[in-house]
Specification:
This protein has 3 helices and 15 strands. By secondary structure, it is mainly β. A 14-stranded antiparallel β-barrel has the order 1-2-3-4-5-6-7-9-10-11-12-13-14-15.
Amino acid sequence: VTIMDVSPRATAMGGLTLGEATSDYLYTNPAAFVRGEQWVYASVSGAVGSKLLESGRPYSISSSVGVTKWGVGLMAGIRYKAGIKIPKYDPSGVEIPGKFIHQMDRAIDFGVAYNPIKSLPLGFYAKYAYYLTAYGRNAVAHSFTAGASYQHRFMTSDGVYNHLLTGTVEVSELGRNFSDGKTTVLHLPSNVAGALSWNYVGIAGSKFDTTLGVQGRYFFKPEKRSLMQFSIGGEVMYNKLLSLQVGYQYAWRDLSFVGCGLGVKLPYFNIHFGSHISLAKDMPRHNFIGGVSFEL
């Protein structure tokens, strides 16, 4: 079960999912949209990955909506991921040849963000997620996430804000593990994370925007997961239209990879293609993911 959804853009940037490294604020950093200029936010996105040998081709769909007023933001969303099949076992635990179970992960998300002092660019957020997965058998889980985000805008001598520094820390996926009502089927990937990102928005005479970010994540319950992950990535956008992303993720237990990607930004629509090259010997060498998102 992949709890933390990674978009094609985030994959290309080495797995960056916090701060300004991703535009999906409502999931990864709700405190960021509280300080925006809009009061209603909505997004719908879909992604398809490359085929993983006999396991199938994963795909995901997500949507979210958020409203903000007077420094308080509320969000709700749904996520759906499928396309992967896993072997089926008989009651004694023996694999049944040629029989598979199609895995489906579903989540319902709710979140709240609060910016207590308007003049201070510091926001706090909390999220709750209800998960339902078919991982050999149906199981549910409840998780909670809490974090804080600080943003500082730098002004040029002519009074234009074109530099944005964002720092985010969070403790995520705490709560009840996946259970079928009798036993624990899977553990939540409980972790603590921190990220720092810098954005440069080109002013008059410049056609390039730049984003750089770093992120670290440590897992408390690392069953079949890396104990620690460190990501670094960047993006260059030309003329507010075309973008190029590169990134690298270092992870214990041979989960390191190099990422790259391309993006096109259109009015209300974003199209991204990402790829990561695994540095582990026992993992698929190449993995591609493409996605389209609509944002209001």
